[in-house]
Structures are given as C-alpha cells and as structure tokens.
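Module 6 notes. Inverse folding takes a fixed backbone as the condition and produces residue identities as the prediction. Think of it as a translation problem where the source language is geometry and the target language is the twenty amino acids. Below is one complete input and output pair. Work through it position by position during the lab.
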C-alpha cells in the first residue's frame, strides 16, 4: 500500500513546448501563478526554432525558485521530450500540460486535496474547457462524462480525462515513464500504466484548465496516429491481459466508431456509415450512440 502523502506535498507541473511562442507565456504564467506554495514548473522545450526558448528563459529569471527550464538543442519528438521533463520532476504529485494550454486558478490546490483523502489514490482529473484560437466555435467542455473507480478498465475503454487535467502520484509512475515506442500518443498509455495495478482514480468538480484548439495541434486531425493508437492498445492487451475485454472495446471505439463520428461531422455520410457498421460488427453496444448521431446530423 502506498505511503500517505506529506501534509503539503510537492507538486511538479510538467510542461512540454515546441515552437509555441504565441502561447507559451500564458501557459507558464498559469502554472507558476497557481495559489499553492510547494510547487515547481518543469518546462521541457523540444528544440524550438522560434522565440519559445527566450520566453522560457525570461520566466526562469522572474521565477528562479518556481521554474525549471530544460532547453534541448535538438528536436527529439513529443514522447522523448516528455520523458526529459518527467525525469526532472521532483514532486510527490505531477500535473501535465502542453505549452499551449492554460491552467485555471485553484487547480493544483483542488487536486492535492483530492489526493490527501486516501493513500490509494493515484490519478485525478477534472473538466477541461476547449477553446478555439480563431474563435470559429464557442468554447465547450472536453469530457462528457468524468469517471471514478479503480484500475485501468475505464481508462482503457473511455479515456475520461483530457491530458491537461491529469495529476498522478509520482510513486505510481512506471520505471520507463512514457513509452518511447509510442512517439505521439503516449500519454493515455501512461495513465493505463499508472492504474494497471488497481489504484484509485477520480476527479474534482469544476473546470480547472483550458485546451487550446489551433492548426498546429497534434490532435487537430482525428485520423492522425490511428496506427499508433492500435499499437498502444496492443501493448495494453499484451502487458495487462486481465483488461483484454476493455482493450477489445477500445479498439472498436478508437479505430472505427470515433473516426465514424468525425466523418459524419464532416458531412461524409457514406464513409461514416461504413465506419459505424465496422464498429457494430464487433461491438453492438455502439448501436444506440450511432442512432443518436444520425438523428443529430441527419
């Protein structure tokens, strides 16, 4: 059983950045200005070629006891850069964000309070607001349903938390940290690794972060990285056979049903129908959701 946390556990905010000079100042400020004393923000920059490194240096000068700058000279990719930052985090608890995200006031204190309610608690999330850099759409919540429970089953099946909302106990991290065989979509696999031992996860009520949508987002294309998603789920199934049913469900949802939703929203009804039928052949539970989507989009 994990040891209880200190009365005021140290929190590391893990920030990764790459060519985000338009956004990184707001991101760092939202981290270092949290109303929680025992905190460090670790910014790992992945060899940016714009003004991002200089902005990080300026913040490090302003907040020398609160900001740890890691300015890498070469671009190594998202997952390797994430591991560089994670290796430098010294907190009992670790929160995660990108260099274009924004944390809202009270986030760190609220999540620390959640962890202090039980030694078995290893992962906490919250609602995130999605906002659009070009104001093309109004802001909206990221997650429809936040979940609580034990183990990795619901994390595999539903991915209830946006990465910007996640905080984990450092002593629950696997020794390999992020899996470097997954160059882009390694964050969800890390949450699975953290929970696979049966630890407790949950959420705090309220919206405590904002996720910025813009053209340079890694997740801007819903079909990008599907091969890597397939590889991640294969890893989960191999490493954690007790979650085989959850992995099969997630494979259908992530590789067929979710692309169908994106196609339908884009007006590609024929292609969407093919994707939904492929999902239903393997998982009839998606039928009701498919009907609701057809009713919405026609």
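Target side of the pair, the amino acids:
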């Amino acid at each position: 059983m994990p040891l209880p946390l200190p009365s005021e556990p140290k929190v590391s905010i893990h920030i990764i950045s790459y060519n985000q000079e338009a956004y990184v100042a707001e991101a760092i400020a939202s981290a270092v200005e949290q109303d929680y004393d025992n905190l460090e923000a670790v910014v790992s920059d992945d060899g940016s070629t714009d003004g991002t490194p200089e902005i990080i240096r300026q913040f490090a000068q302003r907040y020398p006891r609160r900001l740890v700058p890691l300015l890498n000279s070469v671009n190594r990719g998202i997952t390797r850069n994430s591991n560089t930052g994670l290796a430098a985090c010294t907190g009992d608890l670790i929160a995660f964000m990108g260099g274009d995200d924004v944390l809202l006031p009270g986030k760190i204190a609220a999540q620390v309070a959640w962890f202090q309610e039980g030694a078995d608690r290893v992962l906490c999330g919250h609602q995130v607001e999605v906002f659009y850099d070009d104001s093309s759409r109004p802001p909206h919540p990221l997650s429809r349903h936040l979940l609580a429970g034990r183990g990795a089953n619901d994390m595999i099946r539903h991915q209830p938390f946006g990465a910007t909302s996640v905080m984990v106990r450092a002593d629950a991290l696997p020794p390999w940290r992020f899996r470097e065989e997954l160059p882009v979509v390694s964050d969800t696999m890390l949450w699975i690794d953290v929970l696979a031992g049966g630890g407790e996860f949950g959420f705090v009520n309220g919206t405590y972060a904002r996720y910025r949508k813009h053209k340079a987002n890694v997740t801007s294309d819903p079909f990008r990285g599907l091969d890597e998603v397939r590889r991640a789920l294969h890893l989960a199934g191999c490493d954690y056979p007790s979650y085989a049913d959850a992995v099969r469900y997630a494979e259908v949802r992530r590789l067929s049903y979710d692309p169908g939703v994106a196609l339908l929203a884009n007006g590609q009804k024929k292609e969407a129908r093919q994707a939904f039928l492929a999902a239903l052949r393997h998982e009839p539970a998606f039928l009701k959701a498919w009907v609701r989507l057809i009713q919405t989009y026609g």
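Reference fact for the lab report: The beta strands are 11-17, 39-45, 67-71, 93-98, 102-103, 121-132, 140-141, 149-150, 167-169, 200-213.
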